Every structure is written in C-alpha cells, then in structure tokens.
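> forwarded from #structure-qc
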C-alpha cells in the first residue's frame, strides 16, 4: 500500500475541510447513505476502467451494490419522496430500468469480449447522469421538505434493506428477463 506523505494543511485547506464537515453532517440520513453508496459504485467503475484488477469479482460487486441501491430507492425512498417532485421521481424509475438492462448486458459479457469495456463505460455514463440529478436536484429538495423524524426512519429502513438485498445478490433482486425491470415491479 502506498504511504502518504504527512503534510501540514494550509489555512485554506483547513477552512474548506471544516466547511465540508459541516455540510456532511447537515445531510439527512437517507442522503448521506445514498451518496456514500454512489461514491462506492464510482470507485468500482474506476477500478473496472483502470483495467488492472480482475474484472469478474468487480462486476459481481457492482451488480450486487446496484441491486441493493436501486431496491432501497425504488421500494422505500422514491415512494416516500414522490410528492416532492413527481416527474423527477418517475424519470428516476425509468433511468433505473435502463441502467438495470445495461447492467444485465454487461453481466452477460465476457471480460475478453471486445465490447466489455464499452459496456462498462456506457453503464457508468448512464449512472453518472442519474446520480447528478439525484444529488443536485432530488436529494436537496427532499432534505428541505421532509421532516427530520421521517428522514431518520427512512434512513434506518433503507440501511437494513440494503444489507439484505446485497447479501441475497443481484439475481434474486431483479426479474430474469429483458421484458421488465425491478423498477417496473416496484411501481406495481
Ligand atoms: Fe437512483
Ligand atoms: Fe441513487
């Protein structure tokens, strides 16, 4: 593991870090949880695109993490926050569906296939766009409009469900077809 060189932080850096810490603690439990999961998925994409790690286990980890993340948003978070911005939430379900189909295609692709990396990148870009809308638009609206107690309860439910879905795995969480997606089923 590379060692980090100890460096005294500049005054500006300390100020920025404090501001950042304040901002982080100001986020609701659901926002903090979902954003942490977004960062983890971005890390997996970086490793996959870097091409140095074994892609097999990384794709499995990505699929399980995304299955858990999509499940807690679709089944718990989105229904609870839909009234805040109905059209944005409906768009989110659609973006989940498209990402899930792209993820299925990736899971069915050998890392040796000439399009493997292209499928990784296409999925990453779909998710990137979606994450930008959630973090830049939906989450801030929700944190402003829902009361603290509701947000705290949501956070607890989402955390517990995420662990269960990840443990069961991607295949248990999504339908075994390209005809419908877990987002479609969540809305029924
Ligand atoms: Fe989402
Ligand atoms: Fe998300």
């Amino acid at each position: 593991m590379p060692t980090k060189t100890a460096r005294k932080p500049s005054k500006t850096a300390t100020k920025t870090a404090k501001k950042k810490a304040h901002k982080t603690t100001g986020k609701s439990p659901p926002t903090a949880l979902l954003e942490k999961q977004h960062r983890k998925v971005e890390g997996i994409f970086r490793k996959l695109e870097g091409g140095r790690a074994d892609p097999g286990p990384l794709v499995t980890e990505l699929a399980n993490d995304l299955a858990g993340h999509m499940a807690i948003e679709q089944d718990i978070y989105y229904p609870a926050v839909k009234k805040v911005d109905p059209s944005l939430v409906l768009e989110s379900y659609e973006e989940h569906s498209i990402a899930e189909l792209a993820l299925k295609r990736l899971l069915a692709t050998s890392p040796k296939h000439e399009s493997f990396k292209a499928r990784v990148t296409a999925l990453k870009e779909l998710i990137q766009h979606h994450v930008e809308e959630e973090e830049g638009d939906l989450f801030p609206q929700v944190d402003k409009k829902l009361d603290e107690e509701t947000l705290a309860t949501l956070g607890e439910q989402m955390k517990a469900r995420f662990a269960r879905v990840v443990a069961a795995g991607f295949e248990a969480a999504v339908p075994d077809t390209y005809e419908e997606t877990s987002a479609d089923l969540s809305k029924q």
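QC bot note: Residues 34, 38, 69, 73, 131, 134 surround fe (ii) ion (ligand 2) (CB under 6 Å). Residues 29-187 form one domain.
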